[in-house]
Amino acid sequence: MKREPIYVETRIEADMEDLWNASQIPDQHEQWDLRFSSIIYQPKEQEEDPQDFTYKTNIGLGLSIEGWGRSKGTHNGKDGSRTSSLHFGTDQRISIITEGRGYWKYIRNDKDLTFLTQYDYQTRFGKVGALFDRFIFRPMIGWATALSFDVLKRWLEKGVTPKSQYIQFFVYWMLAFFFSFIWIYHGLIPKILFQHPEEVAMAESLLPDGVSAPNVVLVMGSGELLFGLSWWFVGRRKWLHLIQAWAIPILTLSAIVADPGTLTHPFSPLPYNSSLFLLSLIGLTISRDVPTAKTCKRKRKE
Questions:
Q1: Does the pLDDT of residue 150 top 70, yes or no?
Q2: This prediction's pTM
């Protein structure tokens, strides 16, 4: 199957010079672009010469990818549009990318600017590398490009620094994964799979006679499991934080009423659930206006 180049497009309400500088000056570019940890320009003999540079991308566990690049910016549009072409690559064997080419384009509209990129690259490791690129790396780097464009857009339009945006983004997702784990675990392990005696006993103390406590525990566990899974699929997670902020005090009070002795346990539900409640409020606060790759177009118009 033919390999599709990566394409990302967004519209930004900003001055052309501000957008150009944010994407062409290294100490500004490396602030918002997830694909680069540092960019260093090399000296030029003539002002009109292409700009050579080296880049570094930290990939975790103390590892990094270092490579080279050459860019050429032109102001050739009669309507004020600009273009910047790019040739890049790396000789490091741990990098799946060997060499690639692409461009950025800056287009003036009536009230804003269209900022877009398209690029493609060759891969290492033969067919294995091609499969890895197609199903894992290419979707990942395309997503990172789109997220970076949205961070740039918010920086230029709202003045929110890229660093604070990325802190908000990663805290938002860490909380989502954490809450998902909590609800899935408490629904699946003590309620559905093992029907822990304390779970059944607490249910029996709250239920009227004749109602099967094990069945109620099973239903509660299924609900918690589904709520935990919803953190992966619901787009507007602020509503999940809101539901959780209401549910946690009710569940805590129910546990205490069912067995007041839990207040003296080493892992009492009161301090534990209070921590979850506070994290829910934090999640509710930061879930507003989180950077996202979804605001960008990912397909070129035919």
A1: yes
A2: 0.88
